[in-house]
Design a protein that fits this description.
2 domains; 168 residues; 60% helix; mainly alpha
Length: 168
């Protein structure tokens, strides 16, 4: 395990370094469940719990509450695993998880499974315009930032906009 006790970058060491520099305020700079426990079994448990709870989301069972727990677990992994989860995509997944809370139905069992359980033909509610806008804005920022990074990288094929001619 890369972030385990004997890993390359142990999670416990990262938490201790942040605690040394920032004291108890370190939690607000680096929110994570690993402040409370960063043992190998706990790290593994967070991953297993995330996998199991993801199955609830896929099945449409307690989708909203499950996504809250998954967001907390993923944020903990992103902040607790240092260099291994410090990529733009990891932060993007945390943000997308938060935004998804405004898109999903908040019921025990969502349609189409609810009609099998209750015998009703319940329909899903359309997400709000604001939540759709926020998801689109997230995607725009991702694409825009990726493009800017490529153009300012100094690579001449991106600067003269011919890089894509090599990837046809």
């Amino acid at each position: 395990m890369l972030n385990g006790k004997h890993g390359i970058l142990p999670c416990a060491d990262l938490m201790q370094r942040v605690r040394t520099v920032y004291g108890e305020e370190g939690f607000f700079y680096l929110p994570s469940l690993f402040w409370f426990n960063s043992s190998d079994p706990f790290l593994l448990g967070v991953c297993i719990a995330g996998t199991i709870i993801s199955l609830f989301v896929l099945a449409g069972i307690l989708t909203g509450p499950s996504l809250i727990v998954l967001t907390i677990l993923w944020l903990s992994l992103v902040n607790g695993c240092g260099e291994f989860t410090g990529f733009q995509s990891d932060g993007l997944l945390v943000e997308a998880s938060v935004l998804s809370l405004f898109l999903v139905p908040w019921c025990l069992i969502e349609p189409p499974l609810s009609c099998m359980v209750r015998g009703t033909g319940a329909q899903q509610k359309e997400p709000s315009g604001l939540s759709i806008f926020l998801i689109r804005f997230l995607l725009f920022r991702l694409m825009f930032a990726a493009g800017v990074v490529k153009i300012i990288s100094g690579d001449p094929t991106w600067q003269d906009l011919t890089a894509l001619s090599y990837h046809q």
